[in-house]
Write a structure and sequence with these properties.
alpha/beta; eight-stranded parallel β-barrel; two-stranded antiparallel ribbon; 14 helices; globular; F420-G6PD/mer
Length: 333
Amino acid sequence: MLRLGYKASAEQFDARRLLDYAVLAEGCGFDSVFVSDHFQPWRHTGGHAPSAIAWLGALGASTSRIVMGTSVLTPTFRHHPSMVAQAFGTLGQLYPGRLILGVGSGESLNEVPATGAPWPEMKERFARLREAVRLIRQLWTEERVSFEGAFYKTERATIYDKPEEPVPIYIAGAGPMVAKFAGRAGDGFICTSGKPWELYRETLLPNVAAGLEEAGRAGDYDRMIEMKVSFDTDKARALADTRNWAALALSPEEKHSVEDPLEMERLADALPAERAASRWIVSDDADAHVERIRPYVELGFRHLVFHAPGEDQERFLRLYARAVLPKLRAAFG
């Protein structure tokens, strides 16, 4: 089954506007809404960072059909895994069958300013993520959990309000080790579009498959991708809209240790327009747009969550629902 979702950009809009757009997405026929969990935005000027956990509670109460979740939350630094288990246990009880916990290893931009803690290398961040996922699952399925890990401990901890079924955990990754872990331990995998094609074909998806095989798992497994799309009847406008999200075009090396939105904004604004738009499918033609998306679907991504960069999200949602979503469903089922 193909699922088509909307990415709620918490770095770009305040909580109320973001909620209005997400409710509109359900009304326009999108299947899911995923929200980013940032403590600080990519840009200081005009930036926002509402709490994703609190916002999901409002989204669930304001909608009736869409699946909703985080893409992604970091359960290892400013969010302790026990608190994540409690919060998503409550949300899962309130909105059964509609919630997904998407997790990742985090970014210094969000974790360091909020905690003052030093930012560790990827080896430690990945170890923390593995341990956090294990602890969250134990808290959802066991009583009085005494957990002794390398990074986290609990003592006779109980989540008293659990959903009837544990909330699915999707794991985001951009490299082979995390992708394999996502296959081995996750209920789904999350990545983003616009990167070198070989990354998906030769690294990410093969490692997800290897993780699934290693764990002896079969059946339903969601391969989700955030699609960076700037679609408008005016192509010049679609291109200009990407400027606000130029930071996505910065390499991991360029932004790895940047912890200040003002500095991230400076680096992004220094990029030429062509590079600023490089992560995005920029189009004014629906058929051509679908063909740009086709390779991702044919690789095996069946849950596409569309992230649009423009300020006029209502315009995007209505136009995309009318011009593009029907073509995607007709082409791919």
